[in-house]
Structure formats: C-alpha cells, structure tokens
C-alpha cells in the first residue's frame, strides 16, 4: 500500500468515521437537552457504503480507522461493520470512541469482530454528577464497560475527560490518579466551542497548561514517547503503570501532527474538524461513481487539508455542525 501526504508533508493514514449522528446520552457540552434534529435514516451511509469508502481509502494509504458518532454502539449490527472493515487489505487498526453505556455487554463481540482498541468518554467519577453531565447516563454502566473492554483485550483503554470550569474541574486530580492503579490512559481534552454552543462560555474553558498544573499537584510528570500518538502529548508519574495525555486543540496547535480525515455520518469527507469545507462522497456513491472517482475525491480531501485551524483561546469561532454529526 502507498503512503499519502498532504501539501504540508503530513502523512495521512487515519480516517475517523461517524457511523451515526444519534446518541443515547445528551452531554451538556455536546448536545442541547432536546438532542439534535436527527438525520433521516436514508441520509446516513449504509455499512456497504462505509466499507467501500474504507477500502478505497486503504488503497491510497489509510491504515487506521476509528468509528465514532453520535454513539456508535447504538447503531444496529455494528459488529458486522467492524468485521467487514477488518477484512480490508491494508487496515491495521480499528478503534472506537464510545460513552461506554453499552460496552459491558458488547466488548467481547467487538473484539472478536476485529476491534483493536477503545476510547471511553468519562467526565465524572461521581454517579450523580455523571448523570447530570450526560443528562441521564449511568456511571456504573460506563465503568463496567471499561472493565469489560480491558478483559476483552481492547487495550490500552483510553479514558477521555473534558475538564470544564465549575462542572467537573475539581475531579482533574482524581482522574489523573487512575493512572497510578492500572495501565489506563487518561486523556484530558480541552473544551472546544463546538457542539452545544449555548453551554459554552470562555469562563468554562480550561487551557491545558492549567489542567497540567492541577495534575502536577499530585507529583511531577515525566514525558512519555508513544508511537503514533497523534495530537496527544503524553506523560506519567514516576513508576506509574498508566499514562496521562493532554489534547490541546486550542492552546497547543496540534495541526502539524494532524494525520486524519473525517467522514461524517451523512457521507461528507471533512479534511479538518474546524473547517466547514466538506466533500460530498455520499452523492458520488449514490450516483454510481466508480472506485477511481471516489479515490479522486479522497485524494482531493487530502490535498485541501488546511495547514492549521484558526480556533484559539482568543479567537473563538463556532462550528455549525455539532460534534455528534461530524464524529468527535
Ligand atoms: N458518543 C461517543 C463518546 O462520547 O465518546 C463518541 C462521540 S463524542 C462526540 C466524541 C468525543 O467528543 C467525546 O470524548 C466528547 O467528550 C468529545 N466532545 C464533544 N463535544 C466536545 C466539546 N465541545 N469539546 C471537547 N470535546 C468534546
Ligand atoms: Fe453523546 Fe458522546 Fe456527545 Fe455525550 S459526547 S452527547 S455521549 S455524542
């Protein structure tokens, strides 16, 4: 398989696919309480369409696929999609981002189908607060999901936490301490002005440097090199089995390491999370485009990847499409 680089010499080998825009939770920072207007079922790519795009992408150099949403585990028969993608020549790694609510009962089947790793979003370790943030989620179910994923070999399980001032920032240290007990990866993601933007305010946003300072109250951190770590910078407490990652879309531009394309649930190829530019693969697929035409559109997506996004702590712009539709 070849390698594909964009015009800034970044190797693009990673495709994030949103398999569904719907979700079984309504996290306050991601969705409005009433949820978002769901896409019509016919608007969403079928498994055959997703698999075809993944196969053509593998042909130009994509080796890793992440399934996300919305909540990917609520889409029926996801296991079938995973096994189809696992059969594609050139795909070395399939991962999934989930809220973990349904992971407990599905982890074994997912692993058997060919899923390699899982990221679980978890924003509080307190049951009441977890329910409040997710508007109805069950912390025990998410924790059972994490345990089941570890047992199923979906390692390392990465826990993603979005620290938000006044909501869960007092738990930053508790999350960091999880890495003292086991090989878990805990990653702190800067809150972005995207999604349920009515909830957003600059006062709620915590830059990575402040999050890291809070973590360092527990003890000094040493840098850890992780191969293919994408946008996260990793550290660990001396001797700790787990690692701590920081993902800083706003304060530390990770664009120079950006290795990805995104496919939205309605079949739009999105070269950058923060840009509204999209290429309509669904129309091409449904108009009978040949593989070579789909490949040309994928290559175009790589070609037009911007050098960097323009969001920053000072300059906030609001994405029109919610995270759940783009695929966070
Ligand atoms: N439902 C799955 C989940 O929650 O893991 C997958 C989709 S969700 C949109 C993917 C990730 O996006 C989650 O880790 C969530 O915390 C993150 N996310 C959503 N809105 C965000 C925002 N405004 N800022 C930072 N991260 C956000
Ligand atoms: Fe659903 Fe994930 Fe958004 Fe929470 S962050 S509402 S679980 S899509």
Overview of this structure, please?
It is built from ten helices and twelve strands. Mean pLDDT is 91; it is low at 313-317. A twelve-stranded mixed beta sheet has the order 7-8-9-6-5-4-3-2-1-10-11-12. It has 328 residues and is of the alpha/beta class. The protein has a single domain (14-326), classed as TIM Barrel. Iron/sulfur cluster binds at residues 23, 25-27, 30-31, 69-71, 99, 121, 324.
Helix and strand content put the structural class at alpha/beta
Q: What is the terminal separation in angstroms?
A: 27 Å
Note the total helix count: 10
C-alpha Rg (nearest Å): 19 Å
CATH class: Alpha Beta
The main pleated sheet reads as:
12 strands, mixed
Strand content: 15-25%
Give the topology:
Layout: E1 14-20, H1 47-60, E2 64-69, H2 78-86, E3 93-98, H3 103-113, E4 117-121, H4 127-134, H5 139-151, E5 158-161, H6 172-181, E6 185-189, H7 208-215, E7 221-224, E8 233-237, E9 243-247, E10 260-263, E11 268-270, E12 279-280, H8 281-286, H9 291-303, H10 323-326
Parallel strand pairs: 1-2, 1-10, 2-3, 3-4, 4-5, 5-6, 6-9
Antiparallel strand pairs: 7-8, 8-9, 10-11, 11-12
Helix pairs in contact: 1-2, 1-9, 3-5
